[in-house]
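G., the chain you wanted modeled:
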Amino acid sequence: MKIIRGLFRDHDFRRFWLADTLSQVGTRVSALALPLLAVLVLDASAFEVSLLKTLQTVAFLLVGLQVGAWCDRWRCRPVMVVADLGRAVALGSIPLAAVFGVLTMAHLFAAVFTAGVFTVFFDVAHQSYLPRLVDKEHLVEGNAKLRASMSAAAIAAPGLAGGLVQWVGAPVAVLLDALSYLWSAIWLRSIKRVEPPPPPGRTMRADIAEGLRFVLRHPVLRATSAANATLGLFQSAHLAIVVVFLVRDVGLSAGLIGLLSTLGVVGALAAALVARKAADRIGAARLLWISAVANGCFQLLFPLTGPGWRLTFYLVALFGTAVAITLYTVMHASVQQALCPTPLLGRMNATSNFLFWGAAALGSTLAGITATLLGLRPTLWLAATGVLLSATWLVLSPLRTLRAITPPESDTETPSA
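Predicted structure as tokens:
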């Protein structure tokens, strides 16, 4: 019981976790509901669906580095509250337009892009807030518990999304996401702990340059950021077209897609629950690159999916990648947070997000073009190969010879692996 509860004894962490949990369910519902809405309601093409995915992430490329500098000058909790409210309004406009019969792809693009801008602020602040809320020795546990929420959402949301889309329509599913952001804002506002005032910044250019130099000069952070960018490019290409592939090539209904996804990602919850114990036994540094390699190997099973018994490939791939990417995400966040001094957290996270989501925006667009020219299945093969190759950055880095990461003795010094 002690291992399970841990940080849940901390009232403020518990509020932070509650804010994150239902919001994750809503986000996961929209992740499936938005492309299904585009395909089934607005008859979108594969390129339009991939562009929708691009607009969800392109804001990281446009303003990601600036947001990192701002978040190092501001307290994180108010940033997250405002971002949640902004996303609620942006996505809430979609079901409202659908009710009045005026929903178009242009409206969908605009709403998704606006929500994406607020997501940049939220994600950078969210990743920077945990080390301000808990001690660094509890980062793996904190990240594992937050990832467990994401995994539970991944289990519940696809079936919920598929059922909602099939029974009451995709706009209602998107409305659920908008309401989940309101829930998150309420719980974040209830946190009692006061963040210390951030140190004064210099010019925007100097702050951004300092964050970039820190990441690019550190041998471990440089490798993790390069791996993350490569992963973002190819994983986003996969995600941009996989729903279209399942609907049009495999012939699955929205409800069945949701059900299969729910069965497949049970592994993510299991992985999140054992992440701390696995890190203690194997070492966070070692587990990071092992999980990256495993993720790429399982990804190669997705293009083998087909009707009938070949759906087994999809289930095995989804289960395996869910386990691997969960362990990878927990270790990746914990390693980066442990290595980074608090004054640089926002810019470090922004640099990592800039590289990952900037590459993701490019990957989504390229997936739409490639799928149009070569077909959906060949594009999935290219994406899977790229995901496997992304692990090369980690295997060839100092992480290969490390077991664990030692945090800096001082919160202001530049740490080393």
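Residues 347 and 384 are 30 Å apart (CA to CA).

Shout if anything looks off.
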